[in-house]
């Protein structure tokens, strides 16, 4: 169970980068972008093909980000310049990316098990530090007998994801970032102030899908493969991460919200891992579990709010009654 939870946190931190991208479109831009299902695979396929052609893993990962950025920008152009509905723009781009991803990989699945990835390079450097032995020794003193294969991926990815979060926070507080946030709140008002909302929307959707592709590229290198179907349902996972995080940690500030999104992605993976431990559920039920988690995350805050309002009204009624009696 400990090893399963460790794996859930490890993949959850990588998914958190994708969730930050979904947050940018879903919450900041108020843009229902379904490109995510395709751009996640685009990032994975570009990274895999680049690595298999001898390109250094870090450079391959950068190529994946650029590919996702381009895909997102095209979705933005379809919406702003082509005047196509936002939802339909995403669906069209997602559909097109399926064929493009097949073209990139030239087959449905690519294996990178014998290739040098960004994580195998990281592990080779990490093994010489002795940090694994130190951390496993602490777990051993706590009575644990099973240890993770390496702490390198989870610790480094936490640092990388928090770094991306801080950059996102900083960006959303700049002049351009504030304009993006304003577009999501009231596009007409921003347009009346002579701001180029089309360019900002295109860039915002592109940036979002760049993050999604980065997550896809890293996930492919972690799993050792890229598959043309690995992005199916990714938008739902991203939305689940955003909604769970916001429900549990709140949204008072930008910094708190982006941290909540990261927490939501990790908690989502932990919930799915725990659910799959139930005997009558198997890996084929993952989509059902995801849908159930999203429903719970959507309904629970509203029920709690309704309960608080009901309690407040009862309290107010009692106060008025006591005043009348007095």
Can you lay out the helices and strands and say which pair or pack?
Elements: H1 2-28, H2 36-52, H3 57-80, H4 86-105, E1 109-111, H5 118-126, H6 131-141, H7 152-172, H8 175-185, H9 187-192, H10 197-223, E2 225-227, H11 234-249, H12 254-275, H13 286-325
Antiparallel strand pairs: 1-2
Helix pairs in contact: 1-7, 1-10, 1-11, 1-12, 2-3, 2-4, 2-10, 3-4, 3-10, 7-12, 8-10, 11-12, 11-13, 12-13
Descriptive report:
Helix content is 77%, strand content 2%. The protein contains 13 helices and two strands; from the N terminus they run ααααβααααααβααα. The protein has a two-stranded antiparallel ribbon with strand order 1-2. The mean pLDDT is 87.
């Amino acid at each position: 169970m400990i090893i399963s939870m460790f794996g859930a946190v490890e993949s959850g931190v990588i998914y958190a980068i994708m969730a930050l991208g979904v947050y940018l479109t879903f919450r900041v831009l108020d843009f229902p972008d379904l490109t995510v299902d395709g751009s996640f695979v685009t990032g994975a396929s570009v990274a895999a093909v680049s690595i298999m052609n001898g390109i250094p893993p870090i450079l391959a990962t950068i190529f994946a980000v650029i590919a996702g950025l381009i895909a997102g920008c095209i979705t933005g152009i379809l919406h702003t310049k082509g005047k196509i509905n936002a939802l339909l723009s995403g669906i069209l781009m997602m559909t097109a990316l399926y064929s493009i991803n097949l073209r990139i990989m030239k087959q449905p699945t690519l294996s990178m098990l014998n290739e040098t990835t960004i994580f195998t390079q990281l592990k080779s450097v990490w093994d010489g530090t002795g940090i694994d032995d130190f951390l496993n020794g602490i777990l051993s003193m706590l009575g644990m007998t099973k240890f993770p294969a390496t702490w390198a991926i989870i610790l480094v990815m936490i640092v990388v994801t928090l770094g991306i979060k801080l950059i996102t926070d900083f960006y959303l507080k700049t002049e351009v970032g504030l304009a993006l946030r304003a577009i999501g709140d009231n596009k007409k008002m921003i347009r009346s102030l002579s701001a180029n909302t089309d360019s900002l929307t295109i860039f915002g959707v592109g940036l979002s899908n760049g993050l999604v592709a980065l997550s896809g590229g890293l996930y492919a290198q972690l799993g050792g493969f890229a598959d043309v179907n690995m992005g199916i349902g990714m938008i739902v996972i991203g939305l689940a991460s955003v909604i769970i995080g916001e429900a549990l940690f709140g949204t008072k500030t930008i910094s708190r919200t982006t941290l909540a999104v990261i927490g939501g992605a990790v908690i989502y993976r932990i919930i799915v891992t725990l659910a799959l431990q139930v005997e009558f559920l198997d890996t084929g039920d993952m989509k059902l579990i995801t849908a159930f988690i999203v429903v719970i995350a959507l309904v629970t805050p509203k029920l709690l709010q309704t309960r608080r309002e009901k309690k407040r009204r009862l309290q107010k009624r009692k106060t008025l009654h006591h005043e009348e009696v007095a």
